[in-house]
Amino acid sequence: EVQLVESGGGLVKPGGSLRLSCAASGLTFSSYAMNWVRQAPGKGLEWVSSISISSIHIYYADSVKGRFTISRDNAKNSLYLQMNSLRAEDTAVYYCGKSASIGAYHYYYMDVWGKGTTVTVSS
Amino acid sequence: DIQMTQSPSSLSASVGDRVTITCRANQGISNYLAWYQQKPGKVPKLLIYAASTLQSGVPSRFSGSTSGTDFTLTISSLQPEDVATYYCQNYNSAPWTFGQGTKVEIK
Fold first, then answer.
1. Looking at residue A104, what is its pLDDT?
2. How many CB atoms lie within 10 A of CB A74?
3. Over the stretch A32-84, which tens digit does the pLDDT of each residue have?
4. Would you state the pLDDT for residue A65?
5. With contacts defined as CB-CB under 8 Å, which chain A residues touch B1?
6. Is residue A20 within 8 Å of residue A83, measured between CB atoms?
7. In this complex, do B95 and A62 lie within 8 Å of one another by their Cβ atoms?
């Protein structure tokens, strides 16, 4: 069974930093693009960032560009999100999501989701 | 950037009713459209990809269709377990935007 487990969330002051991790199991991690999606309290889903299988292609939402950095370690089956210069509006549950792969093609919709980790930015 | 506009934002229907949710893209995205279901307090779940392909294990009362830049999610016979918020997502080009969501309740 494919499992994604996020960690690293917590309470941080505005301007602070956090590093989220997503540990993957039950799949060949290096074969799939990966994503971060967030959901602020009572709000909808917001795509945050995506990374291709070999980290060549990286994408960010405008709202986090220049502050967040996505990375992956295929040897450790892990995805990361380094979040700097955090703002109150970054408060959300952050989900790790596996991209779908059909044949040799990778698509940036999520067919497996983790349970999420909560980030709260507050003084 | 591609904007995805979902309607309605919420709806209330009776068990057994046919329910339709629409997602409109502000430019062409071919059929690169996914639908997700998020039940209260739960993780989002993929329902449909490629606009009309049902994800494995999803009940056949769910279906998707497309007409140009308009995409539709249909629940043919609403069940109590379908109470959830439904989101569309563009995956044609980054940013992979979600719609605002449609909350479905039972009347």
1. 82
2. 16
3. 999 999 999 999 999 999 999 999 999 999 999 999 999 999 999 999 999 99
4. 98
5. 62
6. yes
7. yes
Residue whose entry in the numeric block shows the structure tokens 């009776």: B14
Are the Cβ atoms of B44 and A111 closer than 8 angstroms? no
B107: tokens are 């009347």
How far off is chain B from A69, nearest CA to CA, in Å?
16
Handedness of CA B3, B8, B10, B16 (dihedral sign): negative
DSSP 8-state secondary structure symbol assigned to residue A90: G
User: What are the backbone angles phi and psi of residue A90, rounded to the nearest 5°?
Assistant: -85, -5
Do B97 and A109 make contact, defined as CB atoms within 8 angstroms? no
To the nearest whole Å, the CA of A82 is away from the closest chain B CA by: 19
Nearest by Cα to B6 from B22, B19, B18: B22
Q: Per residue in A80-115, pLDDT tens?
A: 999 999 999 999 999 999 999 888 888 999 999 999
Taking a C-beta distance cutoff of 8 angstroms, is the pair B30, B67 a contact?
A: no
The answer to whether the beta carbons of residues B97 and B5 sit under 8 Å apart is: no
Q: How far apart are CA B84 and CA B40, in angstroms?
A: 6
CA distances from B20 to B2, B63, B74 (A): 22, 10, 5
Q: Which residues of chain B have pLDDT under 70?
A: none
B86: contact with A, CB 8 A cutoff: no
Number of neighbours of residue A56 by Cβ within 10 angstroms: 7
Q: Which of A25, A13, A36, A11 minimizes the C-alpha distance to A76?
A: A25
Residue A4 DSSP one-character state: E
Contact assessment for residue A123 and residue A12, using Cβ atoms and an 8 Å cutoff: no
